[in-house]
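Most newcomers find our protein records easier to grasp once they have seen one. Each record describes a single protein and holds just a pair of labelled lines. A learned vocabulary of local backbone shapes supplies the integers on the structure line. Nothing more is needed to start thinking about how sequence determines fold. The record below serves as our worked example for the rest of this section.
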Amino acid sequence: MPADLVPLASTSQIERTPSREDGIPADLEEDLRAFGCKLIHEAGILLKQKQVAVATAQILFQRFWYTTSMKQFGIGDIGMGALYLASKLEECPLRMRDLINIYDLLLQRTSHTLSSPKPKDPFKYAPMSYFGNTFYDLKDALVVAEMQILKRLGFNVHVVLPYGTLINYLRVLGLTSRKDACARAWGYLNDALQTPVYALYAVPTIVSAAILLASRHLQISLPSSPPHCWWDLFDAPWEDVWSVCGYVMRLYRERAPEERMRVLRLVGKKDVRGWLEENAVVQS
């Protein structure tokens, strides 16, 4: 596919994202991006939304943060707006009320995790009042988030999903008979949605990285010695393939309880601003 039809972040955006310009550390931004995508994924499951819409929403969500800082918009609001917009783009629209209810549930569960003294305390959802402020606040946040995504991405919301490409590549490599390899590579593509790679690299590179991870973990031998490297068949530079693998594998790293709780506390823009003030971050 022509490169100009696949919106990717520029070098300057990659080196210094708007959030980092505002003093948010790179590791914290990466964790907040991943958590925002998890909320989108969980909302999609609860709403029984199609995977194409959920995946599109996560890619739009990742792109957005190369144009805007998390100090200006909360990951919860933008995630909700991205899923609402993606559902329209993929022609499987959601009812606004249903989406707001689900996100209210997810945000309440997050608050419960933060406030519960015991990890095993059961969570009980308290439905919002449709005549109270909560519903209308979330409705306003959803409308603004959708508008801001369109505005800041310049209405360039074209997304290329990797699943068809994965099937073609597995056929070329003769791996379609290995159900475990197919399932694992598919899983890595889904996990990669929690990382920025879909805003940084072309689809052939990401798919090649998923196949590489699957073949390495399952100890499947593929031609890897120059000049007969299998990823060269798909015009995927080795350095980029290896970089994508690094992004995906970092998702599985062990995190300290303090790091996990820090992410849960920073779902809203006000929370992020408060964290920046408390940590006396000097803006560059």
Q: What stands out?
A: The first strand starts at residue 224 and ends at 225.
